Amino acid sequence: MPLLDVSKSSSHPSDDEQKIFQYIDHHQDTFVQSLSEWVAVESDSIQPHLRGNITEMVKIAANSLQALGATVELKNVSSQDEPYGQNLSLPPVILAELGKDTAKPTVCFYGHLDVMPAKKEDGWKTDPYTLTEMDGKLYGRGATDNKGPVLAWINAVGTFIALNMTLPVNVKFLLEGMEEAGSHGLEDLLKENEGFFSDVMYIVISDNIWLSNKKPALTYGTRGNAAFFVEVECCKKDLHSGSFGGIIHEAMFDLVALLDSLVDSSGRILIPGIYDDVANVTNEEMKLYAPIDFNFEEHKANIGVKEFLYKTKEDILLNLWRNPSLSIHGIEGAFSEPGIKTVIPSKVIGKFSIRQVPNMNLPTVESQVKEHLKRVFSKRNSPNKLTVSMQVAAKPWIANIKNLQYEAARRAIKTVFQQDPDMIRDGSTIPVARMFEDITKKSVMMFPIGAADDGEHSQNEKINRLNYINGAKVFASFLLEISKLHSGSNLMTTS
């Protein structure tokens, strides 16, 4: 049975779209089989000993693109320095292109082929590297992040080829294998291959998810990230708490007090000045929030919490997307195994991050954090050694939703999913969006197809069969729409 009854679509598909959608429906099992083969490759970029699997995955993806008739280059990138003196080679990056018609716009799709670590004993219901379908859900590591969306793009382009239909645009692919580990080498590669982007007008990234389990969305902003280590050292070695407890300034006491000074119980950051540069909310922006589908109970069930900090949809979305937040992630140096180890740790490191938003400035945030922690520490009159360092510095990203490709994507979503998309921001940080925009100076859009409950990075990651198959349809429709809008735009400019 087709996943989309086009006769009931609120925006009727064209004849070409009808053919494309029917082909995708009839070949959906083949597309699922391809995803199964991709999920089976444990292309984990976090664990160095699995690096060879990523190279294997890159070659599989390159073969898929070559089968479409694309010109494919595997670009080597510099090696990666690891702790303890290791120097690791990096998997190549795919640069592929299909079509060089100067009369057509060129769309470049970015995606990644690596995944986060996963083991069945971590709490998976199924083997994470065996794609398993249950109740219309396709479970497997990378199913939604990001192998499913990458394949949906390949399937969309492949459908035009299979039907002997002329591609409405030129298409390029940039696929990497180190995104989950920080996209090592990607920035240098973009700078060294500026010619690859010379004719590109639009860059599309499909590496996030909807806000809802069922309603599609387009993403126009992400938060940045400033991650910090705060280290306190009290002695040169761990000490017996019975022999020394009560007569020294323990590092853990200082660290807990420092971490407690960062945020209050309502979630408000307590660092002076941190909110000073946050961009004001405009009336135009607030109008985007009203039609957004946000189901409180659904979201609580998705993440397993009893209550949110805020009671209204608007407050939750404002504090998720466009206000900064601070999270404490852990303490290194403290005993964390089962049972109790009665020692006083000599050195402990607290780890926290601040998700920043426009118009916050990274050097300013760094200065504010360091000054605040030093001020709190000084009040404790502790002889211990304090060190504060910023480990990650990623900028926020925001797009113009009036851009042509956002309009094309809205139309494609209306045709395939029979409803207008939510226009959303993403509270997380996706550095490649800002990286592409800054280096290439091209228009960037985030175009997700995964549902809010897909569990990216989590146990039992999945993508719904419906989302995966309709994802191919909406990407194909988008290519047709961007071609039409681009042509219309050129006609208006010429006239």
Automatic annotation (TrEMBL):
SUPFAM superfamilies: Zn-dependent exopeptidases. It comes from the Eukaryota. The keyword Aminoacyl-tRNA synthetase does not apply. Residues 221-377 form the Peptidase M20 dimerisation domain. Keywords: Carboxypeptidase, Hydrolase, Metal-binding, Metalloprotease, Protease. Belongs to the peptidase M20A family. This is Beta-Ala-His dipeptidase.
